[in-house]
Please model this.
Amino acid sequence: MTVTYTSRVTTSRRVSNFLRLLARWRGSVYKLIWMNLLLFLLMYIFLAISYRYLMNEPARKVFEDIVVCCHKYANIIPVSFVLGFFVSIVMGRWWKQYLSIPWPDSIALLVSSSIHGADDRARAMRRTIMRYVCLCQVIVFTMISPSVKKRFPTYNQIIEAGLLLENEKIIIETLDVAFPYYPKHWMPIVWAASLVNRARRENKIRDDYAVKSIIDELNSFRGLCGFLLYYDWVSIPLVYTQVVTLATYSFFLVSVIGQQWIASPHSSTSDNVIFRYFPILTILQFFFYMGWLKVAESLINPFGEDDDDFELNWIIDRNLTVSYLIVDDMHQEHPQLIKDQYWDEIFPNELPYTDESKRPVPPEPSTAKLGISRHSLDENKTLLKTNLLMMESTHSFISRSTSDPYAEEKDQVRSSAVTFNDNTMPSDSDRRIGSEINILQPSPTSMNLEELIDQRNRERRERLRNRFLDMRSSHRPMNSQYILTVLRPPSAGSSHHTMVEEGEEEQEEKTPTSDVPNNKQEKTD
Model:
């Protein structure tokens, strides 16, 4: 099962909590790479002994040239890039596979709340539906997990666990013989859907919406089971896995030679005593890179038997127990309904704390303690006045630049302070210009952009209304007549009479009678 260490790192301390995790063995990097590290050290020690004690002078000269070449060109292999990209893909795939594991809790809640009845038949329906859901999950797990397959190698072990009955086993085996190349994990979901429909017909489920909700949850459960099979069938491309493996092992094969100590003037470590006896940095490099590769190897299939793989057997036991508990033992059951302790207060002002010193302070906005200087206020006022002046000048420019045949006359009227007394009657042209000025001229106070938009919208609506009234008055005739025609199916052998009647109808349309009210004529047989 996945190694959990969350309780050890709940709160950060002065000394890192991660240092305490380095002493753990189960699920650790030491457990993954100790064998590879031992082989690397044995190869390094063998080459060092051979160079110092077993080789003659010409052989040592050739070995020194090889060491210099390997040390110089070892960094050409992009190990960090290839490993980092590969591990990121594996980690994302690992988490998505966990999210694809289906859980039957939502189906159990819907079944318990929708299938009513305390009799044995209603109880059997609820329990059987949930057993079919868990059976679908078990069949899928046996196809992707070696540990579950070892637990349920055949259908007989599933029958012993109580997830399958003998008659259901016969049906599945019959379909396995008829269709041997396709998985049958969806069959229990089909049976569960049939039971839901039967419960609706027997009025155990009282509305169709509940049926639809249960069927949707069953389809979602089946889809997640299918995704688990897809992850098992479609792996990360083999080419990429081979590239990562070859890059990592070839890099350390070159490093085990290139990191050797040699007594040569061309070597930068010839005078280093520590590097001569123990290659500490080379071991750390192997530790990190090989540990990176082993992490990817252990997480690429999380349904195996590694320390960090998912415990599917525990999931099977948990799902069946919780499903039966929800649909049977807790069906239509709840604690006694009583008033809560805040019934009279409506809501609590503060909830109690065991230690009042731990009560948190309410959060403050980020600008709660931000002070505003007098200088910034003056600047804001100046900016606001500038914006208002710009809006007034823009409005005056727009009103002057619009195509208006009476623009010059309007300017004359605005510039001249002409007043009319009671005895003076303005001309038609003056009235028209004055009305347009009242509509288009802004108020003495500055008009902002929102008022200008509202004014334009009112003018547009008024123009549309006038246009509609003009069209209505010009297109509707005064003495229009409407003819109501009653259609009837033609009878056999009445084509000649139909033609005669059509001629009579045309004549009647030309000469309307006055017996029909509202100038409407009805044609009947």
Strands lie at 482-485, 520-523. Confidence is low (pLDDT under 50) at residues 400-407, 412-446, 493-506, 508-525. The radius of gyration is 44 Å.
